[in-house]
Write a structure and sequence with these properties.
The structure holds 2 protein chains of 2 kinds.
Chain A (H helix, E strand, L loop, with lengths): L1 H21 L3 H21 L2 E2 L9 E2 L4 H6 L2 H32 L6 H13 L2 H12 L6 H8 L7 H4 L1 H26 L3 H9 L4 H29 L3 H6 L11 H10 L4 H32 L4
Helix pairs in contact in A: 2-14, 4-9, 4-11, 5-9, 9-11, 10-11, 11-14, 13-14
Chain B lengths: L5 H29 L3 H5 L12 H8 L3 H32 L5 H12 L7 H11 L5 H25 L3 H9 L4 H30 L2 H6 L7 H6 L9 H21 L1 H8 L6
Helix pairs in contact in B: 1-12, 3-12, 4-7, 4-9, 5-7, 7-9, 9-12
The chains are: A mainly alpha, B mainly alpha.
Chain lengths: 305, 274
């Protein structure tokens, strides 16, 4: 009897603590609402205004007029196309390279740790350093390493950023992001159960059969995750483009991030830049929705944590 | 993984070495260039063997604004990580041990904020920062970077808390341990490696960030990433100095990343892949 009373008191006390502890996420939620969600709504508000910071006195409410303005600008579609070209080609190339590298690294060989460390390093370098490095030391048409090698082999010295700007931008981003793909897919390969592989081999499956019917299906969720995550980051690439090409020549390598930056902070057109920002948000939201679905499915199946 | 003929295996290994070398080569070349004289940096054919000199390191570090910007980066990354910890750890703790119907939703919402495109919020942030006097201040950048890293802290720390056996906490509570004591003496020591890894990731992301830094700072609070980007037009003459500055500015993060290789994946996928 006395025991059960004591237990009851402990339980009540426990419940009080319990509800107090549930409030612990509140500061985080408030902070994140203020820093991320409020600006989001303000962006929506600005997108309905005519507001150029160079002529603040002419600021007035405009309604939806900024949107047809953005959509009727042919440059906007070039910018969207560039954004998609960069994102999709980087995703495809890094995926192929990432799978190959992950397979190569998922074997036992001498110096594996060092090789892995070397391979992830491009990902750790800050994007502006990568871009400055590639732009000057590697791509420079007169003195760059690439030009020097071409000259030594008897070819004309290429001016990569002038003649192949989009290709150059993609090369640099691929170089940075291949390690990311490799790391995630390697984690996927390492979680593959050995008995599955052995069973396939006992059944007489060669390496290709093994890859097609065991490894690839197992990797599927990891591939989905890695690709979606990467798409989100690549959609917003800014530093590499800013340093490497400044979106040029012309607008040949201007993506959505760089285009909005120019609209907002070079032309100071807050209204139109905000309207473009809304399009960027819609684009990213589509990807996020897919991502959350994949994540949930992964959790339900117990593969992801 | 697959059983193969020895020669196949050996050639695959050689191929792996070659690819790794090719991927790493631009970085190696940058480091080598930083030890050359400016004349050697431009020599044709490119110099693989040369007389190394520290002269350009000295100029890049001490005869420039590099150190000021490095200090900015240090202040911003360290304080933003601390703020993200102060907010995120209690939240992660509650979301791990005191789950409610909304916990899942809160978590999903938190990751979704990490995935917001920066260009979607930069314009109002710029205007608000300008009006509040936060533009080009350390405080302003600390706010932005702690918000950027908070979802990461909550997600990672939650998964580390979930690895702590609940029985240990229960035992503590029966002994009448307070919330703070439980946190300080039972939970924190158990998740210390996770805390360390999460901190490293926050440092890496804040250190390398460019978009917000570039648009919300001018000179006073501009971090190293912004300073380095100013070399985009300094074509030609100062590659060795540029390489020395660039090498110095990535060194801390590269070392942090090498240490936290495993957690890097976890952090980048919001804990979805361990």
């Amino acid at each position: 009897m006395a025991q059960s009373i004591a237990l009851n008191a402990a339980q009540q006390e426990g419940e009080a603590i319990f509800s107090l502890r549930r409030l612990l996420p509140l500061p985080t939620i408030l902070f994140m609402i203020i820093v991320t969600q409020v600006p989001l709504i303000v962006t929506l508000g600005y997108s309905l205004e005519r507001w150029n910071l160079l002529r603040p006195e002419r600021r007035r409410f405009l309604g939806l007029d900024n949107y047809p303005d953005v959509l009727s600008n042919p440059d906007f579609f070039t910018i969207i196309a560039n954004t998609l070209i960069i994102t999709v080609s980087v995703a495809v190339v890094t995926l192929v390279l990432g799978i190959c590298l992950a397979l190569l690294l998922n074997r036992d060989f001498a110096g594996k740790g060092i090789v892995r460390t070397m391979l992830i390093t491009p990902f750790l370098i800050m994007p502006t350093v990568s871009a400055v490095l590639w732009k000057n030391v590697l791509f420079n048409p007169a003195f760059g390493l690439l030009a020097a090698v071409a000259a030594l082999l008897g070819f004309p010295r290429p001016d990569m950023l002038q003649d192949y700007p989009m290709f150059s931008v993609i090369v640099v981003i691929v170089w940075q992001w291949t390690p990311f793909m490799m790391l995630i897919l390697l984690a996927g390969l390492q979680s593959l159960a050995h008995d599955q592989i052995e069973a396939c081999q006992i059944d007489g499956g060669g390496p290709l059969v093994l890859f097609r019917y065991i490894v690839l299906p197992h990797l599927q969720r990891y591939i989905e995750l890695a690709v979606l995550m990467q798409i989100l980051f690549i959609l917003s690439v800014f530093g590499v483009i800013f340093v490497l090409t400044s979106g040029g020549p012309g607008i040949q390598t201007t993506n959505l991030s760089y285009g909005i930056y120019q609209e907002a902070f070079q032309r100071w057109d807050i209204g139109e830049a905000s309207a473009m920002g809304i399009f960027a948000i819609i684009l990213a939201n589509i990807v996020v929705l897919v991502f959350v679905r994949v994540l949930r499915r992964g959790q339900a199946e117990g593969v992801a944590v | 993984m697959m059983t193969q003929k020895p020669w196949v295996n050996r050639s695959l290994t050689v191929l792996t070495y070659l690819i790794a070398f090719a991927m790493f080569f631009p970085i190696l070349w940058m480091v080598m260039t930083s030890f050359k004289t400016e004349a050697d940096a431009f020599a044709f054919p490119p110099q693989i063997i040369f007389d190394p000199t520290l002269a350009n390191w000295h100029i890049a570090l001490f005869d420039s604004n590099f150190l000021e910007h490095l200090i900015n980066t240090l202040i911003i990354t360290v304080f933003s990580t601390l703020v993200a910890f102060a907010f995120g750890i209690p939240a992660a703790y509650a979301l791990a041990y005191y789950q409610t119907k909304r916990s899942d939703l809160t978590l999903m919402w938190l990751i979704s904020t990490r995935m917001l495109p920066p260009v979607g919020v930069i314009v109002p942030l710029f205007v608000i920062f300008r009006d509040l006097g936060l533009r080009d201040t350390h405080t302003g950048m600390v706010i932005i970077y702690s918000a950027m890293n908070l979802p990461l802290v909550v997600w990672m720390m939650r998964s580390f808390f979930l690895d702590v056996p609940y029985e240990i906490l229960e035992a503590g509570r029966i002994d009448g341990v307070s919330l703070l004591q439980e946190f300080r003496f039972i939970v924190i020591p158990l998740v210390l490696p996770g805390l360390f890894a999460t901190g490293l990731l926050c440092l890496i992301f804040a250190w390398n960030e460019f978009f917000f830094a570039f648009n919300l700072t001018v000179t006073k609070a501009a971090p190293v990433s912004v300073y380095i980007s100013s070399f985009k037009t300094a074509e030609g003459l100062f590659w060795a100095k540029m390489s020395a500055g660039a090498t110095a500015s990535v060194l801390p993060v590269v070392i942090a990343g090498w240490i936290a290789q495993r957690q890097l994946v976890q952090g980048l996928t919001m804990g979805a892949v361990k």
